[in-house]
Description:
Number of helices: 6
Strand content: 5-15%
Number of strands: 4
Largest sheet: 2 strands, antiparallel
Amino acid sequence: xxxxxxxxxxEGGGLPLGLAISGAEVHDxxxxxATLDSIRxxxxxxxxxxxxxxxxxxxxxxxxxxxxxxLRQRRIRASIPERRYAHRRKRGRxxxxxxxxxxxxxxxxxxxxxxxxxxxxxxxxxxTSVMHQAxxxxxxxxxxxxxxxxxxxxxS
Length: 156
């Protein structure tokens, strides 16, 4: 299969924190931890950038022992729904699913739609993955600038 798949980690409002790309045939679980490792959020008063989110919501494609173990090692609270395996018996304790985290997966889909609004990312003309990732980064910067320059909602 030809093509690429874009992986993105977003914050609660939909702004991208980490980006990664992979081949279209690569399973999401194989790139999940590498995508998390791409997070670097600067702290407001200096110091080392924040590299670990407090919580993570993902879809069923990321339900795997290696991903869950990697998240546990990084001390990241995860909400990943279980896949339904009809052919095997479940043993051990059931993974916890955080209701507060699981309600926000639509934010990632909205962020993918924001990335798709950039023609250069929607129709890939670049031959190298480095150039595609560079355009992803530029699109992420534009998304952050839009958020910074948008007027704040009036509250009464």
